[in-house]
Predict the structure of HAD family hydrolase.
Amino acid sequence: MAQRFKAIAFDLDGTLIDTEPFYRQLMAVVLKQEFDYLLAKEEYDQYYFGRTTQQGFTDIVSKLWGRPATTDEIEQIIVKVREQAVKLREYIGAEIFPGAVELLKWCRERYIPTAIVTNASRRTVEGNRWWYRWDELIALADHFVSYSDVGKSKPAPDVYFRAAELLGVHPAEMLVVEDTVHGIEAGRAAGAVTAAVNGLAGSGADYYFATLKELTFHLPEFFPQK
Protein backbone atom coordinates (compact mmCIF):
# COMPACT_ATOMS: atom_id res chain seq x y z
CA MET A 1 0.00 0.00 0.00
CA ALA A 2 1.28 3.49 -0.89
CA GLN A 3 2.18 5.93 1.85
CA ARG A 4 -0.34 8.63 2.68
CA PHE A 5 0.41 12.34 2.91
CA LYS A 6 -1.21 15.60 3.97
CA ALA A 7 0.48 17.98 1.51
CA ILE A 8 2.59 18.08 -1.62
CA ALA A 9 5.50 20.32 -2.65
CA PHE A 10 6.63 20.73 -6.25
CA ASP A 11 9.89 21.95 -7.67
CA LEU A 12 9.35 24.54 -10.43
CA ASP A 13 12.08 24.57 -13.11
CA GLY A 14 12.26 21.26 -14.94
CA THR A 15 9.36 19.80 -12.96
CA LEU A 16 6.33 21.96 -13.73
CA ILE A 17 7.79 24.23 -16.39
CA ASP A 18 10.51 23.56 -18.95
CA THR A 19 13.07 26.34 -18.47
CA GLU A 20 16.18 24.26 -19.16
CA PRO A 21 16.55 25.23 -22.87
CA PHE A 22 16.59 28.89 -21.81
CA TYR A 23 19.10 28.47 -18.99
CA ARG A 24 21.36 26.26 -21.08
CA GLN A 25 21.45 28.92 -23.80
CA LEU A 26 21.91 31.71 -21.24
CA MET A 27 24.92 30.05 -19.65
CA ALA A 28 26.42 29.25 -23.07
CA VAL A 29 26.02 32.81 -24.37
CA VAL A 30 27.56 34.44 -21.30
CA LEU A 31 30.52 32.04 -21.24
CA LYS A 32 31.14 32.62 -24.95
CA GLN A 33 30.91 36.41 -24.68
CA GLU A 34 32.90 36.82 -21.48
CA PHE A 35 35.41 33.95 -21.75
CA ASP A 36 35.27 32.83 -25.40
CA TYR A 37 34.39 29.39 -24.03
CA LEU A 38 32.06 26.89 -25.69
CA LEU A 39 29.87 25.12 -23.14
CA ALA A 40 29.17 21.42 -23.72
CA LYS A 41 25.82 19.95 -22.68
CA GLU A 42 27.58 17.62 -20.25
CA GLU A 43 29.18 20.62 -18.55
CA TYR A 44 25.83 22.36 -18.23
CA ASP A 45 24.38 19.26 -16.60
CA GLN A 46 27.36 19.06 -14.25
CA TYR A 47 27.66 22.70 -13.22
CA TYR A 48 24.18 24.13 -13.49
CA PHE A 49 21.40 21.53 -13.65
CA GLY A 50 19.38 21.75 -10.43
CA ARG A 51 21.61 24.48 -8.96
CA THR A 52 21.47 28.26 -8.69
CA THR A 53 23.01 30.55 -11.29
CA GLN A 54 25.60 31.70 -8.74
CA GLN A 55 26.61 28.14 -7.92
CA GLY A 56 26.92 27.15 -11.56
CA PHE A 57 29.00 30.12 -12.62
CA THR A 58 31.17 30.03 -9.50
CA ASP A 59 32.24 26.45 -10.21
CA ILE A 60 32.79 26.71 -13.95
CA VAL A 61 34.56 30.10 -13.80
CA SER A 62 36.81 28.81 -11.02
CA LYS A 63 37.67 25.88 -13.28
CA LEU A 64 38.45 28.19 -16.22
CA TRP A 65 40.62 30.48 -14.09
CA GLY A 66 42.34 27.67 -12.24
CA ARG A 67 41.56 29.32 -8.91
CA PRO A 68 38.50 30.03 -6.76
CA ALA A 69 36.47 32.95 -8.09
CA THR A 70 35.75 35.63 -5.50
CA THR A 71 32.26 36.75 -4.54
CA ASP A 72 32.82 40.15 -6.18
CA GLU A 73 34.01 38.54 -9.41
CA ILE A 74 30.96 36.29 -9.58
CA GLU A 75 28.64 39.20 -8.84
CA GLN A 76 30.09 41.07 -11.83
CA ILE A 77 29.38 38.04 -14.00
CA ILE A 78 25.85 37.72 -12.62
CA VAL A 79 25.19 41.31 -13.72
CA LYS A 80 26.06 40.20 -17.26
CA VAL A 81 23.82 37.15 -16.84
CA ARG A 82 20.85 39.31 -15.84
CA GLU A 83 21.40 41.64 -18.80
CA GLN A 84 21.55 38.73 -21.22
CA ALA A 85 18.53 37.04 -19.62
CA VAL A 86 16.35 40.04 -20.41
CA LYS A 87 17.27 39.73 -24.10
CA LEU A 88 16.91 35.95 -24.30
CA ARG A 89 13.48 35.87 -22.66
CA GLU A 90 12.15 37.83 -25.62
CA TYR A 91 12.56 34.83 -27.92
CA ILE A 92 13.12 31.75 -25.73
CA GLY A 93 9.98 30.91 -23.80
CA ALA A 94 9.26 28.58 -20.91
CA GLU A 95 6.72 25.87 -21.70
CA ILE A 96 4.48 24.38 -19.04
CA PHE A 97 4.93 20.61 -18.95
CA PRO A 98 1.91 18.57 -20.08
CA GLY A 99 -0.24 17.72 -17.10
CA ALA A 100 1.22 20.36 -14.76
CA VAL A 101 -1.84 22.62 -14.66
CA GLU A 102 -4.19 19.66 -14.38
CA LEU A 103 -2.09 18.26 -11.53
CA LEU A 104 -2.29 21.47 -9.50
CA LYS A 105 -6.00 21.79 -10.20
CA TRP A 106 -6.53 18.18 -9.10
CA CYS A 107 -4.93 19.03 -5.76
CA ARG A 108 -6.88 22.27 -5.36
CA GLU A 109 -10.22 20.63 -6.10
CA ARG A 110 -9.53 18.09 -3.34
CA TYR A 111 -8.24 20.68 -0.84
CA ILE A 112 -4.76 19.16 -0.79
CA PRO A 113 -2.30 21.87 0.37
CA THR A 114 0.40 22.60 -2.21
CA ALA A 115 3.62 24.58 -2.43
CA ILE A 116 5.96 25.39 -5.29
CA VAL A 117 9.59 25.38 -4.14
CA THR A 118 12.41 26.69 -6.33
CA ASN A 119 16.15 27.33 -6.43
CA ALA A 120 15.40 30.45 -8.46
CA SER A 121 15.41 33.71 -6.55
CA ARG A 122 12.10 35.37 -5.71
CA ARG A 123 13.37 38.43 -7.58
CA THR A 124 13.85 36.37 -10.74
CA VAL A 125 10.47 34.65 -10.67
CA GLU A 126 8.28 37.51 -9.47
CA GLY A 127 10.12 39.95 -11.72
CA ASN A 128 9.28 37.78 -14.74
CA ARG A 129 5.78 36.60 -13.91
CA TRP A 130 4.71 36.60 -17.56
CA TRP A 131 7.63 34.35 -18.53
CA TYR A 132 7.18 31.94 -15.62
CA ARG A 133 3.44 31.78 -16.41
CA TRP A 134 2.56 32.88 -12.88
CA ASP A 135 -1.18 33.31 -13.42
CA GLU A 136 -1.52 30.07 -15.38
CA LEU A 137 0.64 27.91 -13.14
CA ILE A 138 2.20 29.24 -9.93
CA ALA A 139 -0.98 30.95 -8.75
CA LEU A 140 -2.67 27.53 -8.59
CA ALA A 141 -0.46 26.55 -5.62
CA ASP A 142 -1.18 27.64 -2.06
CA HIS A 143 2.38 28.77 -1.36
CA PHE A 144 5.54 29.78 -3.23
CA VAL A 145 8.98 29.31 -1.65
CA SER A 146 12.26 30.54 -3.12
CA TYR A 147 15.78 29.79 -1.92
CA SER A 148 16.18 33.53 -1.34
CA ASP A 149 13.43 33.30 1.29
CA VAL A 150 15.62 31.07 3.47
CA GLY A 151 19.16 31.91 2.37
CA LYS A 152 20.18 28.42 1.28
CA SER A 153 19.52 26.59 -1.96
CA LYS A 154 19.01 22.90 -2.67
CA PRO A 155 20.50 20.41 -1.88
CA ALA A 156 20.21 22.09 1.54
CA PRO A 157 16.82 21.15 3.02
CA ASP A 158 15.88 24.66 4.19
CA VAL A 159 13.42 25.41 1.37
CA TYR A 160 11.47 22.25 2.17
CA PHE A 161 11.50 22.95 5.89
CA ARG A 162 9.94 26.31 5.03
CA ALA A 163 7.41 24.70 2.70
CA ALA A 164 6.31 22.25 5.39
CA GLU A 165 5.96 25.12 7.86
CA LEU A 166 3.74 27.08 5.46
CA LEU A 167 1.70 23.99 4.64
CA GLY A 168 1.20 23.26 8.33
CA VAL A 169 2.57 19.72 8.20
CA HIS A 170 5.58 17.77 9.42
CA PRO A 171 8.05 17.19 6.55
CA ALA A 172 7.40 13.45 6.79
CA GLU A 173 3.74 14.16 5.93
CA MET A 174 4.71 15.95 2.71
CA LEU A 175 5.39 14.46 -0.72
CA VAL A 176 8.18 16.29 -2.59
CA VAL A 177 8.17 16.15 -6.41
CA GLU A 178 11.49 16.90 -8.12
CA ASP A 179 13.40 16.46 -11.38
CA THR A 180 17.02 16.76 -10.19
CA VAL A 181 19.28 14.84 -7.85
CA HIS A 182 19.95 18.02 -5.84
CA GLY A 183 16.22 18.47 -5.36
CA ILE A 184 15.71 14.87 -4.28
CA GLU A 185 18.59 15.23 -1.82
CA ALA A 186 16.99 18.39 -0.39
CA GLY A 187 13.64 16.70 0.09
CA ARG A 188 15.13 13.64 1.72
CA ALA A 189 17.35 15.76 3.98
CA ALA A 190 14.22 17.58 5.16
CA GLY A 191 12.66 14.25 6.09
CA ALA A 192 10.08 14.24 3.29
CA VAL A 193 9.21 11.39 0.96
CA THR A 194 10.35 12.13 -2.59
CA ALA A 195 9.01 11.42 -6.07
CA ALA A 196 11.17 11.89 -9.17
CA VAL A 197 9.60 12.85 -12.50
CA ASN A 198 10.51 13.75 -16.08
CA GLY A 199 13.25 11.21 -16.69
CA LEU A 200 15.02 11.23 -13.32
CA ALA A 201 15.07 7.47 -12.79
CA GLY A 202 17.80 6.11 -10.52
CA SER A 203 18.01 9.32 -8.48
CA GLY A 204 17.50 7.76 -5.07
CA ALA A 205 13.91 9.01 -4.86
CA ASP A 206 11.32 6.97 -3.02
CA TYR A 207 9.05 6.92 -6.07
CA TYR A 208 9.53 7.51 -9.78
CA PHE A 209 6.97 8.62 -12.37
CA ALA A 210 7.91 9.13 -16.01
CA THR A 211 5.52 12.08 -16.46
CA LEU A 212 3.33 14.41 -14.43
CA LYS A 213 0.29 12.72 -15.93
CA GLU A 214 1.47 9.39 -14.53
CA LEU A 215 1.97 11.03 -11.13
CA THR A 216 -1.56 12.45 -11.22
CA PHE A 217 -2.94 9.01 -12.03
CA HIS A 218 -1.34 7.60 -8.87
CA LEU A 219 -2.07 10.52 -6.52
CA PRO A 220 -5.34 8.99 -5.22
CA GLU A 221 -3.17 6.26 -3.68
CA PHE A 222 -1.23 8.89 -1.71
CA PHE A 223 -4.19 11.15 -0.95
CA PRO A 224 -7.26 8.92 -0.56
CA GLN A 225 -10.51 10.85 -0.24
CA LYS A 226 -12.94 10.12 2.56
About this structure: The chain is about 45% helix and 15% strand. The beta strands are 7-11, 17-18, 95-96, 114-118, 143-146, 174-178, 193-197, 207-209. The mean pLDDT is 92. The radius of gyration is 18 Å.
